[in-house]
Write a structure and sequence with these properties.
The chain is of the alpha/beta class. The protein has helices at 20-28, 47-52, 61-65, 79-84, 104-109, 131-150, 177-188, 202-208, 234-249, 271-275, 321-338, 352-357, 368-373; strands at residues 2-5, 32-36, 56-58, 70-72, 90-93, 113-116, 158-160, 163-165, 169-173, 192-196, 212-213, 253-256, 282-285, 302-305, 308-312, 340-341, 344-345, 358-361, 364-365. It is built from 13 helices and 19 strands. Bound molecules: nicotinamide-adenine-dinucleotide (NAD).
């Protein structure tokens, strides 16, 4: 049983899908993990560390994929890598099945069986494999650090001989996994934190972290299936923006994390709202890559409008590649071990997690999203 790990091909991707630690865990279950030399370097994992834990180090992606039963990736593999996959090979990763550029057709042509970890049902049994949560945690933390670096102010209150500096005021929009981590991080840095969400459970979670919950929906929750937020109507969004505007106008930092699964991010901050903010304030938009919570955000860019910096996120977890990979690789290994029985790769398609995340089985689309994308 050979599992391949190749150097990630997406520009700017620093993470890796297996670490020396997970190579050891997989080896104990009968896997030979074949790692392309240098695959872990950008995540601070050296070839020698992989080899010490039982990995086979090879020079090229072609050698890594030779005879592989499964390819472990972070981002969707490039067409070149897919061409090197043995016919019928499995692939596990954040495969972005709803993004039009995802190479679903190439994977189907290779008769691949593919699991997109973002589709894993978020049940309690799946928690240890939940890559969306592990990477959102990293993103929420890093968003605050990025905002702090752009803020021309302290986060904590400073009482000095030269006078007192008041603490920064931070507003966190969306209190899911990333938002809660952003709240905790901003509090640790000494900021005064307010937050908002549209799910009923969020208020208690926000308060338990020592932040103030700002209700912008007048007690009405916008809840959909599975405890997630549902998409707000245009009217609801307009009301929410009107209530948010005053809070944002007095905030030094706004971290936006609002998202609705499978949908474009809700547009919660308009240009007009930015124009009411004070010069020097910073918005860090973690939702920039899925449409942006702020109208002015551009992924991977800092836009300055009236002295307010609007920083658009671009693959934030990759900036913390070592810890992001440590968590992600554990998610991947746990999922692969779920599909390993007595030393054999034996996915049980009756298992709700195995079938829930599966987008292609022997090249045939099995998930409604992928059936639609491939016109099946
Ligand atoms: N395995 C599990 O049991 C598990 C794992 C992870 C998350 N969850 C649950 O999933 C939910 C959130 O997960 P997530 O962080 O992946 O969510 P997400 O990334 O889809 O969304 C981020 C947050 O944005 C909020 N949001 C959506 N529209 C908004 C709006 N108009 N205004 C303000 N906020 C808005 C959502 O309610 C959510 O809290 C929570 O209920 C969490 O407890 C469960």
């Amino acid at each position: 049983m050979r599992a391949a790990v190749v150097t990630e091909t997406r520009p700017g991707e620093r993470r890796v899908a297996a670490t020396p630690e997970t190579v050891g865990k997989l080896a104990a279950a009968g896997w030979t993990v074949v790692v392309q030399s240098g695959a872990g370097v950008r995540a601070a994992a050296a070839d020698s560390e992989y080899a010490d834990r039982g990995a086979e180090i090879v020079g090229t992606a072609k050698e890594a994929l030779d005879g592989a039963a499964v390819l472990l990736v972070v981002a969707p593999p490039s067409d070149d890598i897919i061409q090197l996959m043995p016919v019928g090979c499995g692939v596990i990763g954040l495969l972005e099945p709803t993004v039009p550029t995802t190479p679903l057709r190439a994977l189907a042509d290779q008769r691949a069986t593919a699991w997109a970890l973002e589709l894993l049902p978020r049940t309690s049994r799946a928690q240890s494999m939940d890559a969306l949560s592990s990477q959102a945690l990293v993103g929420g933390y890093r968003a605050v650090i990025e905002a702090a670096l752009r803020l021309p102010r302290f986060f904590p209150m400073a009482m000095t001989a030269a006078g007192t500096v008041p603490p920064a005021r931070i507003f966190v929009l969306g209190a899911g996994v990333a938002g809660l981590q952003a709240i905790a991080t901003a509090r640790r840095l000494g900021g005064v934190v307010e937050a908002n969400d549209v799910r009923s459970a969020a208020a208690e979670e926000v308060k338990s972290l020592g932040a103030k919950f700002v209700d912008v929906t007048e007690g009405q929750t916008l809840e959909g299936a599975g405890g997630y937020a549902r998409e707000a109507t245009e009217e609801e969004l307009a009301e929410q923006r009107a209530r948010l505007a005053d809070h944002l106008a007095t905030s030094d930092v706004v971290i936006t994390t609002a998202a609705v699964p499978g949908r474009r991010a809700p547009r919660l901050i308009t240009t007009e709202m930015v124009e009411r903010m004070r010069p020097g304030s910073v918005i860090f938009d973690l939702a920039a890559e899925t449409g942006g919570n702020c109208e002015l955000s551009k992924p991977g860019e800092d836009v300055v409008h009236n002295g307010v910096v609007i920083a658009g996120a671009s693959n934030v977890p990759s900036a913390m590649a070592k810890d992001a990979s440590a968590l992600y690789a554990r998610n991947v290994a746990t999922f692969l071990l779920l599909m390993t029985k007595e030393g054999a790769f034996a996915p049980d398609f009756e298992d709700d997690l195995v079938i829930g995340a599966c987008i292609l089985r022997d090249g045939s689309p099995v998930h409604p999203l992928v059936k639609e994308a491939l016109g099946a």
